[in-house]
Design a protein that fits this description.
about 200 residues; mainly beta; Jelly Rolls; 7-stranded antiparallel β-sheet; 17 strands
Length: about 200
């Protein structure tokens, strides 16, 4: 972690879709727009590709680490990390809020225009999470942490159509709610911390 403003770390980042409000200084603060989401086809049938993704281009292997703090108000409000080739090929990881039960800590991998959703239950009172998304070739390792120190594996996965350079960053969306506030801090993008399999 560093005391430098996040605006320095994220100087080369830009929005895919600008949120309702945002500011970038020591932290990135944003409020989502309603009816925003990332999902392609599977089970639900619909296609939506209009969430708020703050990203940069990254070539080759990398690890992105970020801390997200959030104040969800409606079902499926979410913010986390993402990497992306195009609307048919991407990965996201976040907590998706459930107001009347356990929320879902999970990830979505979209290959060739079809999304999946892998989840584990998490208490709905959780209001922050750290994520680490690492790449080796076309394979990806997704981790989460409550404190930024002790990491647990969420998933190892693959993108079938994955060029050398892809987009990587943080995202947020509100699929069914009016929008919610979240803050991003402690972002680091550097060499992959996911070791080769021996």
């Amino acid at each position: 972690m560093t005391d430098a403003p996040l605006s320095e770390t994220l100087a080369g980042f830009r929005w895919s879709e600008e949120p309702a409000a945002w500011s970038l200084g020591r932290e990135l603060e944003l409020t989502t727009r309603p009816d925003t989401d990332y999902w392609q086809r599977t089970h639900y049938g619909f296609r939506r590709d209009n969430g708020h993704f703050f990203f940069t281009a990254a070539a080759g292997d990398f690890s992105l680490t970020a801390r997200l703090q959030f104040q969800p108000v409606a079902q499926y409000d979410q913010c986390g990390v993402m990497c992306r080739v195009d609307q048919d090929s991407w990965i996201k990881a976040s907590v998706e809020y459930e107001p009347h039960g356990l929320s879902r800590l999970g990830s979505v991998v979209t290959n060739r225009g079809y999304s999946d959703w892998a989840t584990q239950d998490i208490d709905a009172s959780v209001a922050q999470m750290w994520y680490r998304l690492s790449r080796r070739g076309s394979d990806f390792h997704i981790e989460s942490s409550a404190d930024g120190q002790r990491w647990q594996q969420m998933r190892i996965t693959h993108l079938h159509d994955c060029p050398a350079e892809i987009q990587v960053g943080v995202y947020a969306c509100s699929p069914v709610g009016p929008g919610f506030a979240c803050r991003v801090s402690d972002v680091a993008l550097g060499p992959s911390q996911w070791g080769a399999h021996e």
